[in-house]
Amino acid sequence: MANKERLVVIGGVAAGMSAASSARRVKPEMEALVIEKDYFISYGACSLPYYISNDVKDFNDLISLTPKVAEGERGIVVLVRHEALEIDTAKKEVMIRNLEKNEESIVAYDKLVIATGGLPVKPPLPGIDLENVFTIRTLLDGIAIKKYIDDWNTFEVCVGAPECLYVNRYGAGRRPMKGVIVGGGYIGMEMCESLRKRGLEVTVIEKMDRVLGTMDLDITRIVEEKIQAEGVKLYKETSVQGFEGSQGKVTKVLTDKGEFEADLVLLAIGARPNAELAKRSGIGLGVAGAIQVDEYQRTNIPDVYAAGDCAEAIHLVTGKKAYIALGTTANKQGRIAGENAAGLNRRFEGIVGTAVTKVFDLEVARTGLSSIDAGREGYKFFTSTITGRSRSSAYPSGKPITVSYLVEEETGRLLGAQMVGREGVAHRIDTLATCLYGKMTVEDVARLDLGYAPPFATVWDPILVAANVAVKKLLR
After folding, report:
1. Residues 208, 292 within the same domain
2. Which distant-in-sequence residues (6+ apart) come within 8 Å of 85 by Cβ?
3. Among residues 282, 291, 277, which one has the least CA distance to residue 337?
4. Is 435 annotated as catalytic?
5. Alpha carbon of residue 363 to chain centroid
6. Is 0.85 topped by the overall pTM?
7. What pLDDT is recorded for position 151?
8. Is residue 264 part of a domain?
9. What is the CA 304 to chain-centroid distance, rounded?
């Protein structure tokens, strides 16, 4: 009897497990072997701030699939605590190491999917390896941060105030009171709320002139006002130069504008593709150092695919390759890679960079390009911003929603949209993402037949109001 065709997947979180599962659905007789360096597979990394805040009590609730279930119900063999060391694309072999036994072995493949994900940006600053300087990328990262906070707050025996000593399993010490977040992006903003809920003083240090990356100032000003109203100290246009500590633990963050005391530091500077293994194997890299793939998730090497936060994607607004690390993209690319590895010919059309986040009681969302993005791409554009309401003014509990459109001057094409408000934002942005997918103009958007009832919207939904205002600007 001939050997079965084997798919090997490197990486077992979003893209990797999606690839293995979809391949087995398409071709049940195909072997699927997943190599995962960590202890866990298939978990919701986007929920980590809510685990740290105690909104999610048990990290097991973040895990959607275990190795045992993957093998028993899906026929996928998962080797956790195994690291892929080298890929020999000529021999179609992967050298792996059992991290528990420190033993190396060779695994042969017929098809290979690389889903090694992303890595947190961690610049080589003095003191960056001090204890309690955390990143938040994996489930283990989230567990470590929560454990550090819990160890003092769970076993507390206060012997003084306000700088009280607590006794925990490790002895006496000052409980973590001051948290410094380096970076004001999505994760940084979400972690503001998480750490405040856990009773920490929070300081955010951001290198740019705004939070939330390249989002426009009409939106970011509202977010900045909110976090400061919640007691968060914000320092913009400030560069971190290093960290100082005592007895191996961080105590200060050093910047070009002074020093900040810290019991806990969170590096939330962004993510970069984990593509070094692919690069060493002769697999081509593209934008931002991500693995270069075509619309079928194929790399430049036959029978080798890549998906998720290690791979690039087509941006449907610009038509160019982009690197935007999002969980939704990882799952979709993983599915396409697995299906094609199993013999199909499916395309991943691309992305428009839709993202939504919760900052205290604000919903903040974007899709497509911002003004900074469009400027970099050379577009001639204008912005149009309005503030509407989430529900009819006659219906109680409606909230303001600020909507900002980015419009191409000559064509009126919608290039991007951003929103912020206390309700009704998260799903409205999906409508505008669909408009971007269809390359619609603001006149097209203004003609949309949207649902209306007083508990859900106004007669003229904020989406339509914003489009009409943009049309007037376009016609001037």
Report:
1. no
2. 95, 96, 97, 104, 277
3. 291
4. no
5. 16
6. yes
7. 82
8. yes
9. 25
Interatomic CA distance for residues 440 and 412, integer angstroms: 9
Amino acid of residue 93: E
Which one of 287, 312, 341 terminates a domain?
341
User: Phi, psi at residue 202, to the nearest 5°?
Assistant: -125, 130
The count of other CB atoms within 10 Å of the CB of residue 237 is 12
Distances (CA, A) of 407 to 165, 215, 222, 318: 56, 15, 22, 13
Rounded CA-CA distance 371/406 in Å is 7
- pLDDT attached to residue 152: 63
Closest C-alpha among 250, 261, 154 to residue 202: 261
State the sign of the Cα–Cα–Cα–Cα dihedral 107, 112, 114, 115: negative
Residues 290 and 328 both lie in one domain: yes
| Residue 49, domain member (yes or no) | no
46, 192, 310, 435: the catalytic one is 46
Dihedral (CA of 51, 52, 57, 61) sign: positive
Where in the sequence is the domain holding 377, given as residue range(s)? 355-475
d(CA 49, CA 188): 9
What's the token pair of residue 442? 């603001």
Burial group, residue 357, by CB count within 10 angstroms (0-12, 13-18, 19+): buried
Measuring CA to CA, which residue among 159, 313, 156, 173 is closest to residue 247? 173
Nearest CA to 370 out of 310, 313, 436 is that of 436
Structure tokens at 149: 């906070």
Do 386 and 426 fall into the same domain? yes
Dist CA 206 CA 208 (whole Å): 6
pLDDT averages per 10-residue partition of the chain, 476 residues: 84 97 98 97 96 96 96 97 98 98 98 98 96 96 95 49 42 71 97 96 97 96 98 98 96 97 96 97 97 98 98 98 96 98 97 97 98 97 97 92 97 98 96 98 98 95 98 92
CATH number at residue 387: 3.50.50.60
- Same domain for 376 and 322: no
Distance CA 180, CA 127 (A): 14
Q: What is the pLDDT, as a whole number, of residue 162?
A: 41
**Tell me, what DSSP letter sits at residue 176?**
P
pLDDT of residue 233: 98
